[in-house]
Specification:
Blueprint lengths: L20 E8 L4 E8 L6 E6 L5 E2 L5 E7 L5 E7 L7 E2 L4 E2 L2 H6 L3 E11 L4 E10 L5 E6 L5 E2 L5 E7 L5 E7 L7 E2 L4 E2 L2 H6 L3 E11 L4 E10 L5 E6 L14 E5 L6 E3 L8 E3 L3
Parallel strand pairs: 4-10, 12-18
Antiparallel strand pairs: 1-2, 3-5, 5-8, 6-7, 6-9, 9-10, 11-13, 13-16, 14-15, 14-17, 17-18, 19-20, 21-22
Length: about 280
């Protein structure tokens, strides 16, 4: 009769509800035994760091670019995605790039929270958020003075213009009086550049004021004024020099010409009294 002698191993493995514990069954050949090894599972969620855009930045109708650094020291990255509408739409990506234009266009102007997510191969998730601003509105430009049709002489006129923007800050303000050949920036209301004004011929002058905001939206307003540096011509037809008159005041005939004539007057007492007239 032959008896077979051996070792029977009854292996009881306890279950662990924690995701951080796993069970290894090791075959120890040298010691002719089975070993149960319970040790902490390697675990660390991904890291998500937003390089750009930066918080508080303003952007116009064109969707912004983004740079985000995502890594995991233990487990491979499985998926990366972002949302700009609170999770209503989640857009996956594999490399840095540009926010989806259609999603960006659909959003109203104002503050936008951009959130980037990443998970690893064991479904651990991390995220990072940044608040930016969308501004597609143009600045408002309102000219208070000069008013249209005003006349000015050789001295450049003053100007008052009100410029504002409900979204991003005003970046630059400028004006031109020569159709854009020369653009003059300004920061406060003041006087039209004298050299530019002097260089213009008499006649209508179009003054255009511009402004743009920090994301490049721009707007303008214009007013047409008149430059007139020529004096009127005044020619006395009568009375003539040396004539004598009695107690009755003499009549007069005077020819005055100017395209922009405003007021006519005379004096017989050296200017102590000035008497206006409209006809001879």
């Amino acid at each position: 009769m032959i008896f077979i002698v051996g070792i029977v191993c009854l292996l009881i493995v306890s279950s662990y509800s924690s995701n951080n514990i796993y069970t290894n069954i090791l075959n120890d050949i040298n010691n002719n035994r089975m070993v149960v090894d319970k040790s902490p599972k390697a675990s660390a969620p991904p890291t998500v760091a937003i390089t750009s855009p930066m918080g508080g930045e303003f952007f116009d109708a064109t969707a912004p670019d983004f740079i985000v650094e995502i890594s995991d020291a233990v487990n491979p990255i499985d998926k990366m995605w972002y949302t700009i509408d609170g999770g209503a739409t989640n857009i996956t990506f594999t490399t840095n790039g540009t926010i989806d234009q259609n999603n960006w266009t659909a959003l109203a102007d104002g503050s936008i929270t951009l959130t980037f997510y990443a998970n690893n191969s064991i479904s651990e998730v991390d995220f990072a958020s940044v608040s930016i601003n969308k501004d597609t509105g143009v600045p408002t430009v309102a000219i208070i003075s000069p008013t249209g049709g005003e006349y000015f002489d050789a001295t450049a006129p003053d100007y008052v213009v009100e410029i504002s923007d409900s979204g991003s800050p005003i970046d630059t303000m400028w004006y031109t009086i020569d159709g854009g050949a020369t653009n003059i920036t300004f920061t406060v209301n003041g006087t039209i550049d004298q050299n530019n004004w002097t260089a213009l011929a008499d006649g209508p002058v179009t003054i255009i004021f511009y402004a743009n905001d920090s994301v490049g939206n721009d707007n303008s307003a214009q007013v047409i004024v008149n430059k007139d540096v020529l004096d009127p011509t005044v020619s006395i037809t009568s009375p003539t020099g040396g004539e004598y008159f009695d107690a009755t005041a003499p009549g007069f005939t005077v020819e005055i010409t100017d395209d922009n004539r405003d007021t006519m007057w005379y004096t017989i007492d050296g200017g102590a009294t000035n008497i206006t007239f409209t006809a001879n």
